[in-house]
Amino acid sequence: MTEEREPTAAAAGPGAPANDFDGAPADMGDDGTVSTDQRLQQIEAELNETKDQLLRALAETENVRRRMQRERDDTQKYAVAGFAKDLLSAADNLRRAIEALSEAEVTDPLTRSMLDGVAATERELLGAFERHGLRRIDPKGERFDHNLHQAIFEAERPDAAPGTVVEVLQPGYVLHDRLLRPAMVGVAKAGSNPGRGTGDGA
Fold first, then answer.
1. Distance from CA of residue 181 to its chain's centroid?
2. pTM of this prediction?
């Protein structure tokens, strides 16, 4: 006598689900569609984050490049600062030699020729300074500027407005836009002016 058996999952045909006979796999349907959308959103967020990081990295790289370029330009621009500073005393001595004798005192042709040679040497040195961005500051008659000048003394000068440079003890120098040495100056201060403040009774 032959026994009848219940159909098994294998008998139902290949690929059939083991415990579900409605023909739809458990991981498909609405749940599968939502999972795909979430995955796309996640990928989009990761792409945006990666793009933001890339842009930040590019901006930082550009900033570093510009900073290095500025530093390189400054190094080239001010490379002669130390050498120029050593030459300032030579320029000072040439000026002192020229000012030691006035033109009225020079009568000897040999002395005149020597003085002219010193003046020509000074002009050539100052020309070399200017070609390399070094400029002399000789501010007599100008307003005192604490960024460029160093006040050594103040004096009452009725013919000069207070705060005006009335004497230059030592000229200053500027290398491009950087102060190399301030000018040492005397400055007029406010004081009594003879003839002022007195009435003549008229």
1. 20
2. 0.60
Burial of 34 (0-12, 13-18, 19+ CB in 10 A): exposed
Task: Specify the DSSP element, H or E, that contains 169.
Answer: strand 165-170
Q: What is the C-alpha separation between 148 and 198, in angstroms, rounded?
A: 38
Which residue is it, tokens 């002009």? 123
Residues 125 and 4: their CA atoms lie apart, in Å, by 122
Which residue in this structure is represented by tokens 């040495």? 181
Q: What is the dihedral of CA 139, 144, 148, 154, to 10 degrees?
A: 90
Please count the other Cβ atoms lying within 10 Å of the Cβ belonging to residue 174. 18
Tokens in use for 55?
């842009």
Angstrom distance (rounded) from CA 124 to CA 121: 5
Q: Report residue 109 CA to chain centroid gap.
A: 52
pLDDT at 79 over 60: yes
Token output for 10: 């294998």
Strand 183-189, strand 149-156: pairing: parallel
| pLDDT at residue 198, rounded to an integer | 41
What average pLDDT does the chain have?
80
Is pLDDT of 120 > 90? yes
Q: What is the torsional sign of CA 175, 180, 186, 191?
A: positive
Alpha carbon of residue 28 to chain centroid: 64
- Can you read off the two tokens belonging to residue 117? 């040679």
